[in-house]
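Retro notes, item 3 of 5
We never archived the inputs for the magnesium ion complex last cycle. Fixing that now. Sequence and ligand:
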Amino acid sequence: MSKTVLILPGDGIGPEVMAQVRRLLDRIGGFNIEEGLVGGASYDAHGTPLTDDTMAAALKADAVLLGAVGGPKWESLPFADKPERGLLRLRKDMELFANLRPALVFDALAQASTLKTDLVRGLDLMIVRELTGGVYFGEPRGIEDLPNGERRGINTQVYTTSEIVRVARVAFDLARKRDGRVCSVEKANVMESGLLWREEVQTLRDAEYTDVQLSHMYADNCAMQLVRQPKQFDVIVTDNLFGDLLSDCAAMLTGSLGMLPSASLGAADASGARKALYEPVHGSAPDIAGQDKANPMACILSASMMLRYSFDMAAEADLIDAACQDVLNAGIRTGDIVEAGMTPVGTVAMGDAVLAAMDKRAGG
Amino acid sequence: MSKTVLILPGDGIGPEVMAQVRRLLDRIGGFNIEEGLVGGASYDAHGTPLTDDTMAAALKADAVLLGAVGGPKWESLPFADKPERGLLRLRKDMELFANLRPALVFDALAQASTLKTDLVRGLDLMIVRELTGGVYFGEPRGIEDLPNGERRGINTQVYTTSEIVRVARVAFDLARKRDGRVCSVEKANVMESGLLWREEVQTLRDAEYTDVQLSHMYADNCAMQLVRQPKQFDVIVTDNLFGDLLSDCAAMLTGSLGMLPSASLGAADASGARKALYEPVHGSAPDIAGQDKANPMACILSASMMLRYSFDMAAEADLIDAACQDVLNAGIRTGDIVEAGMTPVGTVAMGDAVLAAMDKRAGG
Ligand SMILES: [Mg+2]
Ligand SMILES: [Mg+2]
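Structure as it came back at the time:
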């Protein structure tokens, strides 16, 4: 199996957190690693946030690992040159329709949540958000002038059977590797697009995934239930807009945004392989860039997701996840997750600690 | 000033919680109170969840106070006869476009929240949700068959200038009576309807409400901020869909759903008076109906909102709110909010306690 990984460190803290990931992938070995530029870094070198060559390399790679893009240096650029456009082009040209947003709480960090500790300790839920359809992309859209001097703003929420089925399939496949439960979220009571969503997800489950337990929930109730008892969920699958709000709500529940990875997946080819982009949820944090202060764990955990979902290397992914847990349990923390009585360590020391913990577990 | 109040107790626990409100309004005095049927109770008596006579009375009244509708007895009725249709007709024919959903935490109940107590103690935020427009009502809508055998589900998110301005005005007026801050919430970064929303709210503020502080926030960030630090907000104004999710999320943050009131307001007439419907957020709770177990406080607090917003009786509303606080502080609780070491009291005893606390404060 070919394992070509395109690494795009990007801007701000991207390069320094990715350097720790690079060490880790080198240690595991067997990858064909390429590097490229994206975002402001690409604009500075080539006058565009993503070159056609890099885009072609991304389409050819088995997985793309991205750090972060953006920063004040490029904020005044015209719309098409902004760093974020590089990331959006990657998502669009790779047709990444399924956004996987885990909400994970490491035991050692459970008290960082604004929720009471017992409610989040051990939390491990996965939100699968549809990423290329729905009201953020539907036509017609725009703002029009009315004859009476008012204006009217319009967007269109639209989903087809195949758009729903392909993302639901990702959720069911994930559930099979987890606790076997999917909760599908929409507003079928007031939106026909939600009713179609519910029916198509149920039909797919009944036809192909009878081993997976499927429930349905209205999006407003889901927002309540995430706050009331987040551990009730295994996999949540929902549309682009509801997924936008619910995945951010769930991420905040963990209390450790700087720890969260994500994946965006495209369609499976004949061999079952999917286009895939992995990236930490956090941004480029230009205020601390280049100071050896950034927490590399979200990027390391994104690499772990890559091993698990793109390369079927569950054992190695488990090893990385466990090593991160060991490091946190040992009280080794970067500034963003440090607690009273602990001395914060730097980005490189955190990478050292994860590698050492992997070695210890592998050798022990 | 005329003070005609139409009381619609409805179904389940509605009549018994409303009986306590009735005692309280009688004590304050000066109201012309009418009673009517809504929901299953109306269906049983008249074969419809809302008669034309009751609808006419609601349109003539200065305020409508509603208990709750629905229950298993009426679940198998055809769509148009269901209890909920009575409530929906009231909202529609009264043109109630602004839904006020306070998220209030009483000191004595702060530990009931799933959030850490310090983060919610003293919480008092108000979400103003647009209630008659947006994607739940926009046309075109529906599910269509495509030539390729797939189906397509469509809904339309649409807002006009006047729809935005009238609900924003409600939010600004409320802010003036509170902490003077409004946060307007949309997704202007990806939705033109959200961009129009943002522009029209800002234009109104600059033209007429320069004394109110206005900020803008994306809806996904708002979902995060409600969980991270809910006390940062005073008034939030947002559209129908975002308001649906965010108001339920905020309600759950309080940990005491059975305590929360709501108001739905229509347009102001020449004298400044608005059509208005007040109701608790909780449902009809048929499982405990008729057993003197229901908590009347959400309905009592809905009556307090009525005094404040429909009748400009701030002193009396403050008195009710303070009396409720006294009762909770004294450890007098119905079963839904009772804590270890307390003996739960019934619905009537809770009404007794609130009236006694009002008398004590008024006479003290
Ligand atoms: Mg988001
Ligand atoms: Mg709701």
